[in-house]
Amino acid sequence: MTKLTDLNIVEAVAARKKNEFSCVDMVKEYIAAMDKFRGLNCYITETPDLAIKQAEESDKKYAAGTAGALEGMPLAQKDMFCTKGVRTTAASNILNNFIPTYESTVSDQMNKQGAVLLGKTNQDEFAMGASNTTSFFGNVINPWKASGARSNQQLVPGGSSGGSAAAVAAHLCIAATGTDTNGSSRQPASFCGVVGMKPTYGRASRWGIVAFASSLDQAGIFSRTVTDSALLMEHMCGFDPKDSTSANLPVPKWSQEVSGSLKGKVIGVPKEFRIDGMPQEIEDIWEKGAQWLRDAGAEVVEISLPHAKYAVPAYYIIAPAEASSNLARYDGVRYGLHVDGKDLNESYKMSRAQGFGAEPTRRIMIGTYALSAGYYDAYYLKAQKVRRKVANDHVEAFKKVDAILTPTAPSSAFAIGEKSDDPVQMYLCDIFTSPASLAGLPGISIPVGLDKENLPLGLQVIGKPWDETTMFQVAWALEQAANFKALPQEVA
Ligand code: GLN
């Protein structure tokens, strides 16, 4: 018999409606799996008692015929999402003891549809990183292992939402939220062999998500399938007056539109994404992806995004600048870590020095420098101008194409520690995800194959602003063609 933890959301909801199992049964299987794989360090906080209580409620709702769209589905929330009464740390010592008195809009909307909370997932500290090695709570280990010479190495799950991606891959939750500021819901999906997506900037409310770089931050989702991703997003998105950048637009029923035909659609392949040193197998799978889309009826054309190569340097000015401002609120007075000094000033200094790890500290320093008088024009303003050019490239491209196809990341999962002493190498992990983030576009990563070391590779589909529908349809066509069914060795 299939384990309950092997079902995706569409399958689990259908089977639950037929009374094939109870929500409590399913949650208990997940809790057992979380126990078994605790060594992967996917969760910062586990909430098994709450999960069982919620599952009992869900069973009652199924019996009463009042089940929501996500009723009884055991989900995890990235530890950037404030959860009422459940510790929320952003993987930082400075929020180690923070228990929010409110719920983020996104998680609240999921809860209203019956979602069950298994726990809060590990991540890079304040979502700063691409390998989940900057968390105060330790590294997350990718459940996938390389075959061959590197088989004894522990690999990173990607980042910053590494715990969410690894938890979905290891079947420690049915789906999990992420955040995506520059790729954090797409690159970890590629490293862990799951689907990861971010909507258009403004689709999902940022209210109650720990702020990192507010002009870029969006809620994301990790799932087993494109249809699950569409279904979850349908319920996560929507107008929220509490977020001034939230768009007052109707949210389509994406889950019912994913299987649309690609006839008449034009897909762009950006020539600048063929970078030096990219493994041949990534080139090959990208070409294979283009062919799958042609087979599904689309036309594939080459496009140019001439400023895309400046996206990463611009991002690493803009995001730290915004972070230095957002993280100024952690003063050790109202909430979070407090360290007593001889006076108020020393208390601030000591709380912040002990509260923040190396990566947030580096970003606060870079951001403060970039925003300071005399340097603002040279760095911050210049980076904003570059951002506009990157966005305009996409505006031009979308006059000719309906969606863009690229690899998600320039490599498969690398070893823990491999890039940790060279921040620039780590920042370059964002090379294919950054342009869409700067332009505020929706993006999705779909697992499409394994490399020669048997590690998953993902392809990314980028959509026009507010056109997640086409993005999901292209992703669904790739999913059908790739038929990726591989699982991490120990989970299979
Ligand atoms: N690699 C990016 C960074 O370190 C990821 C940001 C994100 O999407 N949270 O800033």
Topology:
Elements: H1 9-17, H2 23-36, E1 43-46, H3 48-64, E2 74-78, H4 105-112, E3 116-121, H5 162-169, E4 175-180, H6 187-192, E5 195-198, E6 218-223, H7 226-236, E7 266-270, H8 280-295, E8 299-303, H9 311-326, H10 344-355, H11 358-371, H12 377-397, E9 403-407, H13 423-427, H14 434-438, E10 443-450, E11 456-463, H15 468-482
Parallel strand pairs: 2-3, 2-4, 7-8, 7-9
Antiparallel strand pairs: 1-3, 4-6, 5-6, 5-10, 9-11, 10-11
The structure holds glutamine.
Give a short synopsis of this structure.
The chain is of the alpha/beta class and 492 residues long. The protein has helices at residues 9-17, 23-36, 48-64, 105-112, 162-169, 187-192, 226-236, 280-295, 311-326, 344-355, 358-371, 377-397, 423-427, 434-438, 468-482, and strands at 43-46, 74-78, 116-121, 175-180, 195-198, 218-223, 266-270, 299-303, 403-407, 443-450, 456-463. It has 15 helices and eleven strands.
